[in-house]
Amino acid sequence: MYILNDEGKDLLATVKEFCEKEVKEQCKEFDATGQWPEEINRKAIEMGLNALDIPEEYGGIGLDKVTYAALYEEMSKADAGLFTTMSATGLSFKPLMLAGTEEQKQRGADIILNGGLGAFCLTEPMAGSDASNNKTTAVKYGDEYVLNGRKCFITNGGVADFYIITAMTDKEKGVKGMSTFFVEKGTPGLSSGNEENKMGIRTSNTADVVMEDVRVPASAMIGTEGKGFNIAMSTLDITRALMCIGAVGIMQRAIDEAVAYSKQRVTFGQPIGKNQAIQFMIADMEIKKETARQMGLHALRLQELGLPYAKESAIAKCYGGDMAVQVALDAIQILGGYGYSREYPVEKLLRDAKIFQLYEGTNQIQRIVISRAVMGKF
Ligand code: COS
Fold first, then answer.
1. Which atom of ligand 1 is nearest to the CA of 234?
2. DSSP string covering 308-322, please?
3. Helix H or strand E encompassing 222
4. 10 Å Cβ neighbour count for 355?
5. Whose CA is nearest to atom 14 of ligand 1?
6. H-helix or E-strand containing 22?
7. What would the pLDDT profile of 202-260 be if each residue is shown by its tens digit?
8. Does residue 98 sit in helix, strand or coil?
9. What's the whole-number average pLDDT of the chain?
10. Which atom of ligand 1 is nearest to the CA of 231?
11. Which has the closest alpha carbon to 236: 247, 248, 228, 226?
12. Which of 130, 174, 323, 377 is the most buried (most CB within 10 A)?
C-alpha cells in the first residue's frame, strides 16, 4: 500500500481506471502479435504518463516519489510493456537532467510534454554489461560531430522522438573516450533497424538504432567530451529503483490473479485457497512483493532527499527482478494447467517478469555494483 496525499490518490484512481478499462484486456492481443499498441500508448501519453519524470520547473507536474512509484506500479500491473515504454522515456530524460544545459533540459521536457517518447541508446552488440565497449563513433569536424554506428535492444528505438546516444569521441581513451549526444527524430542518417521479437514485454518496441553519418551540432553533446560513461552509469543508478517498482507491479498482478483463482477453484469439495499449502504460497508471494516495494520506495526516497542511493537502487532492482520471476512462477503453480495456458494471464507475467533480471543492467551486474559498494573495488 502506498501512503498518498489527496492529489496522489486522485491521480492513482484515474490511472487505475485507465489501466483497468483500456490496457489490461486490450494488451493481450498485442502481446500475442507483438505489435506496438499505438492507440493505447496515444491515450497513455494524452494522460501524461510519458511525462511523470519531468520536474515542475520544466513544465511537468513534479510528482513526489511515492505517487510517482504508485502510478508506475499501476501501469506495470496492467501491462509491463506499457510501463517499459513510459519509463524508458523517463530514463532518456535523466542524462539531460544530470548533465545537460538549461536549453537541453527544456527541449527534452518540451518534446515529452508535447507527446514524445525517448530512447536511451547505450547498448550495442558487443556492449551490454560491458557498456564501455561502445563501437559507435562521433568524429568532430569544425563545430559538428558525425555519428556512425549501430545500437541494439533499444526500448522505443523505432518509435522515439528523441535519442540519447553514447559514442566514442576518442577510442584510445577507452571508458574516458565516450560522450553522450542528444539527437532528435528526423535527423538525416538516423534510422531504426531490426525490431526484436521478444519473449516478454511484447507490447513495448525494442529495435536497433542506426547512425549513418548523422551530423549534429557540437551543442548536441550532453556534458563534456569523455563524460559519456559516467553520465550513463549515473543515469542507471537512478532509474534502477523504478525498475524494482515495475517488477512489483507484476508481483501484485500475480498475487491478485492467484488469490481470485484459489477462492473459486474447487478441488476435493472445497476452494483450493482453503488449503494451507496455497495460503502459505500466497503469504510468501506477498512477503516478496511487499519487501521489494519497500526497497524500491526506500531507494526513491533517498533520491528525493539527496542522499546516496546507487547501492540501494541496485539492491531494489536485483531483488525486485528476482522476486518477480519467482512470484510469477508461483502464480502459475497455483493456477496449475490453466496457469500454463495462454488463455489465462499469468504465463504472460512470467515472460514479462524475466526482463527485470536483464534490462538496465543484468542482476549479475547489480551484484557487482552492490559488492563494490560494500567491499570497494579491488
Ligand atoms: N556513476 C558514475 N560514474 C561511474 C559509475 C557510476 N555508477 N560507475 C563507474 N563510473 C565511472 C568510474 O568512476 C570511472 O571513472 P573515473 O576513473 O573517472 O573515476 C569509470 O566510470 C570506469 O569505472 P569502472 O572502472 O568501475 O568501470 P568498469 O568497467 O569496471 O565497470 C560496471 C563498471 C560493470 C559497473 C558497469 O560497466 C556497468 O554497470 N555495466 C552495466 C551497464 C548496464 O547497465 N547496461 C545495460 C544498459 S540497458 S539501458
1. 1
2. --HHHHHHHHHHHHH
3. strand 221-222
4. 26
5. 230
6. helix 6-22
7. 999 999 999 999 999 999 999 999 999 999 999 999 999 999 999 999 999 999 999 99
8. helix
9. 97
10. 2
11. 228
12. 323
Q: Ligand 1 centre from 236 Cα, in Å?
A: 10
**What is the DSSP pairing of strand 162-168 with strand 118-121?**
parallel
Rounded-to-integer distance, Cα 310 and Cα 307, Å: 10
- Write out pLDDT tens, residues 119-141: 999 999 999 999 889 999 999 99
Catalytic residue flag (residue 74): no
Which amino acid would we find at residue 337? G
Considering only CA atoms, which residue is closest to atom 13 of ligand 1?
A: 230
Provide DSSP, 151-217. EEEEETTTT-SEEEEEEES-GGGGGGGEEEEEEETT-TTEEEEEE---SS-TTS-EEEEEEEEEEEE
**Confidence at 78, pLDDT banded by 50, 70, 90:** very high
Give the long-range contacts of residues 174-177, CB within 8 A, separation 24 or more: 174/132, 175/132, 175/229, 176/226, 176/229, 177/226
Can you tell me the distance from the alpha carbon of 70 to that of 76, in angstroms, rounded to the nearest whole number?
A: 10
| Best CA proximity match to 166, nearest among 111, 223, 206 | 223
Q: Residue 21 corresponds to which cell in the numbers above?
A: 478499462
* Cβ proximity of 87 and 242 under 8 Å: yes
Nearest ligand 1 atom, CA 360:
48
pTM, two decimal places: 0.97
**pLDDT the model gives residue 377:** 85
Instruction: Please list, in sequence order, all residues whose beta carbon lies within 8 angstroms of the beta carbon of residue 343, skipping any fewer than 6 positions away.
Output: none
Inter-CA distances, 332 with 58, 80, 149, 277, Å: 44, 17, 42, 15
Take residue 311 and report the three cell numbers written for it: 547501492
156-187 in b/e form (b: 16+ CB < 10 A) is bbbbbbbbbbbbbbbeeeeeebbbbbbbbeeb
Say which residues have a Cβ less than 8 Å from residue 81's Cβ, sequence separation at least 6. 27, 30, 31, 37, 201, 202, 203, 204, 352
Could you tell me how far CA 135 lies from the centroid of its own chain?
A: 24
Cβ partners under 8 Å of residue 150, min gap 6: 124, 125, 136, 193, 208, 209, 210, 211
Residues whose beta carbon lies within 6 Å of some atom of ligand 1: 120, 122-123, 128-129, 131-132, 175, 229-230, 233-234, 236-237, 310, 359-361, 365, 368-369, 377
